[in-house]
Amino acid sequence: MNSYAFHGSSAFNDWMDGILQEFTHDTEALLGDKLVALILGGGYGRGEGGIEIIDGKECPYNDLDFTLVVKNAIDVPAQALLDLTARYATRLKIHVDFSRPLTLQAIQNWPAWLMWHDLLNGHIIMSGPQDVLTANAPECVKAHPPPIESLRLHLNRGAGLLWALRIVRGAEPEPDRGFVVRNYYKTMLAIGDAVLLSRGRFATPYRGRDALFDALAAEDSNVRKLDLQERYREALVFKFSPHKFADSKIGEAELQGEAQLWFDVLLDTESLRTGKAWADPQAYANDPMIREPEMNRLRETPKNILRNLRCKKMSFRHPREALYREITDLLLTRPTDWEQRSETALKIWERYN
Predict the structure, then answer these.
(1) What is the domain range of residue 19?
(2) Which residue, 90, 103, 302, 312, shows the most beta carbons closer than 10 Å to its own?
(3) Is this prediction's pTM over 0.85?
C-alpha cells in the first residue's frame, strides 16, 4: 500500500489508498489504451500530504494533483476528465486536478523547471510503467533547479499574497475557508524555499528542509540576517498539520509584514542571481531588465505579442516581465488605483503563471 501522509494514521492512509485506487480504475476505464500512465504528484505523491482534523476525523487538506501520460495529447476526452475530477472533488471536499496531458516525447523535452523537478523527485505511479518519468526525464530536470526558479516561485507566491491582501481589504470575498491563512503560510514557506533554491540547497521532500535551511544559515551571514529559520519551521508545521492553525487570525498588518519580508528575500536572491542591487521596491519595480531571458528570445516575440494582446496590452516581452514589477509595487505600496490594478495583475498571473 502507498503512504500518502507520513504523519497520518494507517487508517487514513488505507482509506486514501482505497479512494485513489477507485480513481485510478475510473481513469483507466475512461481512457482505455490511450493511457500510458497516471501519476500522483504534489504532497500526497511525496507521501507528505496535509491532514486536517474535522469533527475528530482525519481528512485530506491539499489538492490531489494528477499527471496524465497518454499516447496522443489531442486524443483525450477533456470534458469527461473534468467530470471525473469534479465528482471526486465533491466526494473528498478538496480540489482534484489533471495536468495538461503529456506524451513520452513531451517528458523527454521537459525544460529545467521546478515543477518538473519536483514531480520527478516526488511521485507515485498509480498506473503504467513505474519508470515512466525516471527513464524519460532529461538530465537538466534531474539536476538542481536553476536560480531563475527562485524568482518564478517568488512571483507565484507574491500573487497569492496579493490575493490575500485583496480579501482582507474587502476587494473581494474569501474564495474558500482558510484561504488567507493558507496563503500566508504558503508564502512564508516559499520565501525559505527561494533562499534554498538561490544557493543550490533545495530538495523536493519537505521533510528535512528545515535542517537544510539551518545548515545554510550557519554558513551564510546574509541568510542569517533574513532571520527566517523559526518562521520557516512554523510554515512546515502548517504544511503537514494545518488544523493546528485553525484559530489563527491573519489580518492586514500580518500580510503587510510578510510582504516586506517577501521583498527583502527577493532583493537577496535577485542580487545573488543578477549581481545587481536596488535601494527600495520602486527601484526594483522600475528596473527595465529582462528577468526571464529564455522567455524573451527573438523566436518568442510573435508569441509574446499575442500573449500581451490577450491581456489588452502591447509589448514584445512575456507578460510575466511586467508582473514582476507590478506585483512588487502593489505588495509594497497602495496607490489610489490599487484595487483595479491588483485585479488586473492577478488575472494576467492566472493566465501565465
Answers:
(1) 10-142
(2) 103
(3) yes
